[in-house]
Model the fold of this input.
Amino acid sequence: MQNNPNSPYDDVFNNLAKIVEDIVKNMPDNNNARIIGYTIITRHPSNGDPEVFRPGEPGDDEEIPYEIVESDDTIYITVTMPVNSKNAPFVDIQTKNVRVAVDNRNISIMLDHPIDRIHSYYRVHHGIMDITLKKVSTN
Done:
């Protein structure tokens, strides 16, 4: 979807950003609050088919953006899939790193904790990949 300076969605998304900001500010323990990944589904104006709206400028075509959040026993990685990918993504979960590849792009994410590969998994939904990595217990 091209950026349109007169897009009717601009006001909606600006208002939505303000609402989300207010929600996060009013959450208990808001210093640790995080919003991870998002997908906004719109309808194509001419045929009504669903399409994914991605605000902002497209990033570097060679990079795959991701975000990591960690709890005591799990590492969560959220990856934004390239918009025009032609092939399904490939994920290789190893004990100390995760590699994500799609088309000719790939990233390797080094991990600070060993991972239990058997109990780790990923899923892709509406252009967002969620990777859930179970840490090896130290008990």
